[in-house]
Write a sequence for this structure.
């Protein structure tokens, strides 16, 4: 997720672009840049870091000109560096472009463009768009953009300008949001309304596949077939904060609702259905080495640790690789046994900056392990220090409680399992079954999110309890742990996650009418076992909220409340089961009046021991 802002009008563009970038900073903040056109030429400025570093670079200067585009980046391809910062240019420094999204086929496009003589400067997927547009450009920027986009696979929200047409911005949308701010003798383009609200409240949302040309006093929108689209502007009634949260009351809820798209981004271009394969570009260099690995140790903390536990079940069942999961804070002080060349140590971390996980990886490296990372923040310490890795592409996570990063970590775990499994004994048919089930996940998560209101009602009925027990077994044992963690961190309610089979060994003593149980009980290989745990709880007067598979009517007789999730392969149930638990925790936190985005005592990234 990156932020785009563009302005064409009569006022100086720089302050407008800068203000827009500030409003979009929550979408990405590892580097930013802007370009402003005037009749003499071009002013381009870029900076690594947040928007204030770009401002420092400007040192109060105004880049002359009243047409320009700007971008705040959340890196996906290529580390946060000046050369990878948008705007990107063609070979002649004539075309300037900012982009939000992922160009899936950028490698092949880049190879062909290089053969044709184009010179690339960055490692980004975006730069291919600038060169492709250059290839088709002969004075009509809109037509060249259209031709270029015909060749592109992936997602984009983009804005492009040309030195030869100084009062024009061309914008296009496919999979990444864009809207036009309609003003008097001026128009703006932006990734979201927050960036334009200071100048206008009249907006036109671009639809999928549309291309818009913005001039001083006119806007033309066409679809990919060149048909003219007429759409009235609508008036924005939201205030700024509401807009940044996309209309949601909290970032946490927004991020929960982003999860279908997050899974799409995490798996995009990485699955081959016909061959039942996952292709992870970041692991290609070590692919042969991975084929020889005999043991994997996963190191991580908090929610990422629970993602590791799910990964352990997946790898052992589908890839046959002995796997251990270690809290990074423990691993760093143990004397881990690592067999050089045979052991891979995998760090899972949203931020890539968690101090304990960094130390664990350094220790593993010292001992000669192959080190791998599953990281969301591109260019972070773990991403840089591991031998190879996979990026989540989940976009910035603002809420302190991890939600979308976790779901993305689980999706990547499934891809990694598929890749390592197919390298070993997994059959193509099994691989195909897993691939097609993974592809259904975004739609299935959308179905679960439709139950938000009924989950809120359950949350309101249960928000006065002071203790909760979360139970799950096998793949969903880590989800019980994660559900309990979500509840404690944002509502400050005491919650314990347990393996359902352990209940009889102690926690059952806690159960009475004041100690509700949240049970994850999908129709899987341990369904009957967990169901009998529920019977034991009911026999002791306990209250039960069950997360069960659609169509399971039996469970309703054992539970006070049932939240249904769609049917999927057992290995993928955690990805669905966690979503209602996130919503439950969120609504209980809100009902208790907590600051769910910034729980007391917690920081988003734990960079100290
Ligand atoms: O950035 P990381 O994934 O390495 O962070 C690990 C934990 O600090 C993090 O998951 C933490 O537990 C979250 N607050 C959980 O919601």
């Amino acid at each position: 997720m990156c932020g785009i802002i563009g302005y064409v009008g009569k006022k100086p563009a720089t302050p407008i672009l800068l203000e827009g970038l500030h409003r979009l900073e929550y979408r990405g903040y590892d580097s930013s840049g802007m370009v402003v056109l005037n009749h003499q030429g071009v002013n381009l400025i870029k900076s690594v870091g947040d928007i204030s570093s770009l401002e420092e670079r400007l040192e109060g200067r105004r880049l002359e000109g009243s047409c320009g585009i700007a971008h705040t980046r959340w890196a996906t391809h290529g580390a946060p560096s000046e050369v990878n910062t948008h705007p990107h240019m063609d070979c002649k420094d004539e075309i300037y472009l900012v982009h939000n999204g992922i160009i899936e086929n950028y490698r092949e496009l880049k190879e062909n463009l290089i053969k044709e003589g184009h010179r690339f400067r960055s490692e980004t997927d975006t730069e291919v768009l600038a060169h492709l547009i250059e290839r088709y450009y002969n004075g009509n920027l809109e037509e060249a953009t259209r031709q270029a986009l015909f060749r592109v696979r992936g997602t984009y929200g983009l804005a492009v300008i040309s030195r030869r047409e100084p009062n024009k911005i061309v914008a296009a949308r496919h999979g990444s949001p864009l809207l036009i701010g309609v003003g008097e003798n001026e128009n703006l383009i932006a990734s979201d309304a927050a960036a334009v609200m200071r100048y206008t409240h009249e907006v036109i949302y671009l639809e999928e596949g549309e291309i818009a040309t913005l001039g001083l006093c006119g806007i033309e929108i066409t679809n990919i077939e060149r048909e003219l689209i007429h759409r009235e502007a609508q008036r924005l009634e939201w205030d700024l904060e509401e807009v940044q949260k996309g209309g949601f009351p909290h970032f946490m809820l927004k991020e929960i609702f982003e999860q279908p798209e997050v899974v799409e981004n995490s798996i995009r271009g990485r699955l081959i259905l016909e061959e039942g394969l996952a292709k992870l570009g970041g692991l290609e260099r070590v692919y042969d080495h991975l084929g020889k690995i005999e043991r994997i140790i996963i190191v991580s903390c908090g929610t990422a640790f629970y993602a590791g536990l799910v990964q352990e079940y997946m790898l052992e069942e589908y890839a046959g690789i002995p796997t251990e999961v270690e809290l990074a804070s423990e691993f760093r002080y143990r004397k881990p046994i690592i067999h050089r060349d045979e052991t891979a140590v995998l760090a899972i971390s949203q931020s890539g900056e968690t101090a304990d996980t960094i130390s664990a990886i350094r220790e593993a490296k010292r001992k000669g392990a192959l080190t791998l990372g599953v990281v969301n923040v591109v260019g972070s310490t773990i991403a840089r220090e591991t031998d190879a890795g996979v990026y989540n592409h989940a976009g910035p996570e603002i809420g302190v409680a991890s939600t979308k990063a976790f779901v993305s970590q689980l999706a990547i775990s499934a891809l990694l399992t598929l890749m390592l499994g197919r390298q070993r004994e997994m059959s193509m048919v099994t691989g195909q079954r897993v691939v097609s089930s993974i592809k259904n996940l975004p739609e299935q998560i959308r179905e679960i999110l439709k139950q938000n209101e009924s989950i809120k009602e359950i949350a309101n009925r249960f928000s006065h309890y002071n203790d909760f027990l979360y139970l799950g077994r096998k793949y969903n044992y880590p989800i019980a742990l994660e559900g309990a963690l979500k509840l404690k961190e944002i509502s400050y309610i005491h919650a314990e996650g347990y393996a359902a089979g352990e209940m009889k060994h102690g926690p059952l003593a806690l159960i009475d009418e004041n100690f509700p149980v949240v049970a994850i009980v999908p129709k899987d290989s341990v369904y009957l076992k967990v169901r009998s745990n529920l019977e034991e709880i009911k026999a002791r007067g306990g209250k039960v909220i069950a997360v069960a598979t659609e169509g399971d009517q039996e469970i309703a007789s054992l539970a006070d409340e049932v939240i249904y999730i769609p049917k999927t392969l057992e290995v993928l149930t955690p990805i669905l089961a966690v979503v209602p638990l996130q919503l439950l925790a969120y609504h209980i936190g809100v009902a208790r009046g907590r600051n769910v985005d910034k729980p007391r005592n917690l920081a988003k990234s734990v960079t100290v021991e």
